[in-house]
Design goal:
The mean pLDDT is 96. The strands form three sheets. The chain has a seven-stranded mixed sheet with strand order 3-2-1-4-5-6-7, with helices on both faces. Strands 8-9 form a two-stranded antiparallel ribbon. The protein is of the alpha/beta class. The chain has helices spanning 17-27, 41-50, 62-68, 83-95, 110-121, 135-141, 151-164, 182-212, 216-226, 234-244, 254-257, 267-278, 283-295, 298-304, 319-352, 358-364, 376-385, 396-419, 424-437, 443-454; strands spanning 10-13, 34-37, 57-58, 74-77, 101-104, 126-133, 144-147, 167-168, 171-172, 467-469, 477-479. Strand 1, helix 1 (17-27) and strand 2 (34-37) form a beta-alpha-beta unit. It is globular. It is built from 20 helices and eleven strands. Bound molecules: NADP nicotinamide-adenine-dinucleotide phosphate. Residues 14-19, 38-40, 43, 78-81, 84, 87-88, 106-107, 132, 135-136 line the site of NADP nicotinamide-adenine-dinucleotide phosphate.
């Protein structure tokens, strides 16, 4: 037993990149004393030695860690998501008591969080799944935090999380998202939107580069300029930085020496898998996930490299006008991606019984996290004006923005198709926009086909009821049971 008994008001388990930075962030705030624990003690020792200013209280065992924490004990787990999280929870439950709080700050799948919350609740201990975004830098200086869990745990946890969260326009980027898995669900959607945002930016860069012949450094200037307008965001800002970077070894733009195969850690795929289960079209996010998958298929890409492209050369007559068209296409497609992401939040909240304040979610994404952007204020305003808004892109501000952008968007998608430049996120977002606003969709024909081969029935536009045409008989129509 150490001499640390019950002196810490908060503990961190897992001291890799995220945990050590979060622990330092906690320790830097007035009133916090932070207990730290890592499975292998070398890491604890390393963090302790490197940051004497933090006043950490180290523990070598879970029992010692529990004894170091004042009651109700509050500990944030920052370990490898999955089996690592379950292993730590199993150990903490043995040494914690009813009323204590275990927070999982890792990137857990929300259904795992629902399962864990249910199991831990039976011990009387509170379990909170909290999505934390912002990477290493955010963890240290202020992330965006999306906690779920019970109202009781929020009472203790709220002030602590508010003290370490990023601050945007004077407000901490944290809110009690909803119960059990709501926080990790919203973090998952954040990451899905992040995938779409990154893919759209990448497509914009590619089109400008191949359409105008500008260098990465020149395109960096364009992104820096865009960052002063309605596209202002962390991702646009860092894009300019990446494009401006020169490789020390070759003297080439770094972007030209990076292998063009994008990796993924799975949260984008979760967003799409969950959307499929909920029946929500998140096509922009899905295309972004698939674009990464396609990029990472070297054998297929090599085999397809000789397939023919457009026969005519593609030229951009007015480079400045083209760049402006791409900017508008990017903004319009971004609106679609966020609208789709919020649709998924609404559907998830309905399915899992969460009361999620959509405007508050947009607010806590304004700082700390990867998708932080000016534009999120417009989303908060849209939901404040109309809490029952059925689709974000129909809110007046976004309707106007889309009206101002849609002709540019179409020109860009046409140009990309004619030039043979892949623009899956731009074009699928435009297709979504046109699909949603269409007066009639060919879904009527799909219903006819379904009725033909499977007697799946259809509804009519001119009268109530469910109908089936007797396709293999005399093709008369009969009233039928609705089988969808
Ligand atoms: N990296 C990011 O930018 C980022 C951003 C947001 C969220 N996250 C999430 O934050 C969490 C931590 O991320 P990270 O990159 O700092 O670390 P990580 O590489 O995901 O995980 C390493 C940590 O997990 C511990 N661990 C693994 N299995 C364990 C087990 N069975 N029992 C106890 N501890 C175990 C390791 O302990 P040992 O030292 O003993 O091996 C180490 O402390 C993850 O869930 C990650 O998805 C990361």
């Amino acid at each position: 037993m150490s001499g640390n008994e019950a002196q810490a008001n908060i503990g961190v388990v897992g001291l890799a990149v995220m945990g050590s930075n979060l622990a330092r962030n906690l320790a830097s705030r007035d009133g916090n004393t932070v207990a730290i624990f890592n499975r292998s003690y070398e890491k604890t020792r390393g963090v302790l030695d490197a940051h004497p200013e933090a006043g950490f209280l180290p523990a070598e065992t879970y029992r010692e860690f529990a004894d170091t924490l004042a009651k109700p004990r509050t500990a944030i787990i920052m370990v490898k998501a999955g089996a690592g999280t379950d292993a730590v929870i199993d150990e903490l439950v043995k040494v914690f008591e009813p009323g204590d709080i275990i927070v999982d700050g890792g990137n857990a799948l929300f259904t795992d969080t629902i399962r864990r919350e249910k199991a831990v609740r039976e011990t009387g201990i509170n379990f909170v799944g909290a999505g934390i975004s912002g990477g290493e830098e955010g963890a240290l200086n202020g992330p965006s935090i999306m906690p779920g869990g019970s109202d009781e745990s929020w009472v203790t946890l709220g002030p602590i999380l508010k003290s370490i969260a990023a601050v945007a326009e004077g407000e901490p980027c944290v809110t009690h998202v909803g119960h059990d898995g709501a926080g990790h669900f919203v973090k998952m959607i954040h990451n899905g939107i992040e995938y779409a945002d990154m893919q759209l930016i990448a497509e914009a860069y590619d089109l400008i580069r191949r359409g105008t012949g500008k260098s990465p450094a020149e395109i960096a200037d364009i992104f820096a300029e865009w960052n002063r307008g309605e596209l202002e965001s962390y991702l646009i800002e860092i894009t300019a930085e990446v494009l401006r970077q020169v490789d020390a070894a070759t003297g080439e733009p770094l972007v030209d020496v990076i292998l063009d195969q994008a990796g993924a850690k799975g949260t984008g795929a979760w967003t799409v898998q969950t959307a499929l289960d909920l029946g929500i079209p998140v096509s922009g996010i899905a295309e972004a996930v698939f674009a990464r998958s396609l990029s990472s298929k070297p054998a297929q890409r090599a085999a397809a490299a000789t397939l023919p492209g457009p026969s005519a050369a593609w030229t951009v007559d007015d480079p400045d006008a083209f760049v402006e068209d791409v900017r508008r296409a990017l903004y319009a497609s971004k609106i679609v991606a966020y609208s789709q992401g919020f649709d998924e939040i609404v559907a998830g909240a309905a399915e899992y019984g969460w009361s999620i304040q959509k405007g508050e979610i947009a607010k806590i994404w304004r700082g700390g996290c990867i998708i932080r952007a000016q534009f999120l204020n417009r989303i908060t305003e849209a939901y404040a004006d109309d809490p029952s808004l059925v689709a974000l892109l129909t809110a007046p501000y976004f309707r106007d923005a889309l009206a101002a952008s849609q002709e540019s968007w179409r020109r860009v998608v046409v140009a990309a198709a004619q030039a043979g430049i892949p623009s899956p996120a731009f074009s699928s977002s435009l297709a979504y926009y046109d699909g949603l606003r269409a007066d009639r969709l060919p879904a009527a024909l799909v219903q006819g086909q379904r009725d033909f081969f499977g007697a799946h029935t259809y509804k009519r536009v001119d009268r109530d009821g469910t109908f089936h045409t007797q396709w293999s008989g005399d093709r008369t129509e009969i009233e039928a049971q609705d089988t969808h």
